[in-house]
Amino acid sequence: MEKPGEMTTLTRVLERLHEKGYDHELKMSDHGRMQSPDTQKIYNPEDLTIIKTYRFEGESDPSDSSILYVMEDAEGNKGYVLDAYGAYTSHDEPWFDEFIKKIKVEDREEQILFG
Description:
The protein is of the alpha+beta class. It is built from three helices and seven strands; from the N terminus they run H-E-E-E-E-E-E-H-E-H. It has a four-stranded mixed sheet, with no helix packed on it. Strand 5 and strand 6 form a beta hairpin. It is globular, with a radius of gyration of 14 Å.
């Protein structure tokens, strides 16, 4: 059984999330909302809840830092948003940060991966 301290890499956390059904990456669309490329469902901030946030830091290169937002929608559909952290963000859209800030946060701790 893995312990929370052992979940140190982005790859391993994504593997564990996939095992738990959190395997739909949400992307920011041209119309300023999140969209699931898999289901084509479009989300406004009020349609989503951030249930866990993970931050990963590169050992020698700050541009290797990333942030992973684990989310659910009102129907219980599971997904995530992945981004480079801080100044190295991979989202050029000016509305990405504002969109993320508007999403309700309900931190569910480690039960996502270990429950």
